[in-house]
Amino acid sequence: QVQLVESGGGLVQPGGSLRLSCAASGSINSIKSVGWYRQAPGKQRELVATIPNGGSTVYTDSVKGRFTISRDNAKNTLYLQMDSLKPEDTAVYYCNVVAQIGPFKQLAYWGQGTQVTVSS
Fold this sequence. Notes:
It contains no helices and 11 strands. The chain has strands at 3-7, 10-12, 18-25, 31-39, 46-52, 58-59, 67-72, 77-82, 91-102, 105-110, 114-118. Strands 2, 4, 5, 6, 9, 10 and 11 form a 7-stranded mixed beta sheet that branches. It has a 4-stranded antiparallel beta sheet with strand order 1-3-8-7, with no helix packed on it.
């Protein structure tokens, strides 16, 4: 059974930094992409950053130049380094893995989320 467990969230002042981690356990074949999403109160879940398999990293415009997504395949861990944090980055952050399970079928795995609060 696949599990994604996020960690590293917390309370930070504006301008500060946090690094989120997502540890994966279990076997996932044919990974299509890995990434981070976030959901702020009263808003829809949105993509923060993603690494498509064989493709270039994609960031949402609001975090470009401030956030960096990376992965350590040996540790089965995905990271999100967040610098120059702003109050509008406050949200629950979710780790996501999308697997291609058929010619036209994908399966998304999600972590439980970790709260990031940016406030003075």
